[in-house]
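LAB NOTEBOOK - FOLDING QUEUE
OPERATOR: T.R.
BATCH SIZE: 2
PURPOSE: Compare the predicted structure-token outputs for two unrelated chains run back to back under identical settings.
PRIORITY: normal
REVIEWER: second-year student, initials M.K.

ITEM 1
FIELD SEQUENCE / FIELD STRUCTURE:
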Amino acid sequence: MKLAADVIIVGGGVSGCAAAAALVQNNPSLRVLVLEARAGHKPRFAGELIHPTGAQVLDELGFTPALRAAGGIEVDGFAVVREQDAAPTMLPYREIPRARPTGFAMEHRDLCQTMRDVVAARPGVTLRFGQKVEEVLRTPAGRACGVRTQDGELLARLVLGCDGRHSKIRPLLALP
């Protein structure tokens, strides 16, 4: 059995890129293959607000300098407006005990593209675009051991689904 990678990550968005970065950071000898179904991003208005804990993870994985260079900004907190003309409820991050004092905000498309660029430059990580997973392959005992795309079978020791809210992997695994 020829392994395409040690780990296959289905989904090249924020979670998939962060998972790939964490895996090779903690085990530099791993070969990680990230499969993304889309070949690019559709233009849309979609901002991302990453709270302090998530921003700390981006820091620890080394994404923050590139994200800042791509237009991301530090955010001190946010406000909730319950009704029109009501005073907003301010939620400052600096008041959270033992947390990073700022979050991070940026346009979704730029966030994903920058994270992809950063993780693709890491030794051991390969990204492939336009790779829609059609089937999750299983061992006779039922453990996921790879995927099938239009290009054929790709085998790995571990398969991670990081394909977001419209997941195609969950139904293939019979998960809700």
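ITEM 2
FIELD SEQUENCE / FIELD STRUCTURE:
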Amino acid sequence: MKRSTVFLIACTVFFACQEKNKYGKVADTPTTGEITIVADESLKPIVEAEVETFNALHKKANIKVIYLPEADAITAMLREDSLKLAVVTRGLTPEERKYLMEKNKVRARQDSMATSGIALIVNRENPDTLLTMDQLKDLLTGKKTTWKQIGGRSNNGIEIVFDNPNSGLIRMLKDSVAKVDSLPKSCFAVSKNEAVVDYVSKNRNALGLIGLEWISDRDDSTTNAFLNKIKVVALAGDSTHFQPYQAYLALKYYPLMRTIITINREGRTGLGTGFSAFFASERGQRIVLKAGLVPKTMPLRIIQANTKPFAIE
């Protein structure tokens, strides 16, 4: 038998044995193929860093990301069969897990990848950069509306600006801080985190709420450009104020923390599973560390030179 014929038969057997999807195409594997995932828009910097590195390491893999407000991202993952993975900041509700089981006979896997936070930012000309959690709650419930009422120097009203009404950031603040169904009129959305930074940089009375990912990586040019335009507020649960630095997240001193998780609804071991495993691996967690966040699956060494951590009193 000719060598070319043997090669052709071998290729035919190989591709015939490969798993096919419901469209008859060769299915993706943990390191090959092409998929689209969804992610909370406020997590874009860290998700982008993880995806770009994964794609670069695995030349036959191509992961594309659709960035949406968190509520929309989870809804899309539940309803669209082609979307097998979501990167968000909350787990599925019992109703959502039940929906997946009834529709796809699938149990979603949920894995914690990093500890992040919500950062509060103000205009560079604003002298008021200290807030307590009680003051933030009063602002989010409408009990207080001016800088003077929260210990500031100005009688001007505070404009609270955030990314999107369906974002995970606002969900957390409404559910865990303000404990309200709706926010006061002083709060409004501007579509995405970059727009929040831009608005705050141009409006002295604005108080912005953004994902920490946008300002945590001090080696990133976008982060530094943003930090040159705004100031970061220090928050306190009691009398001591902390800014959202990596060490203060790890020590749980900063009060507005949140967890980044992957929700995987693949019924098999495909590219979504491969990416989630990479995110949790040493290499993926080093990307988390470099981004100024706290890894979930590898230890973080914190060296304290003083008996008390540096804080703003």
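REVIEWER COMMENT (ITEM 2): The longest helix spans residues 3-17.
FOLLOW-UP: none requested
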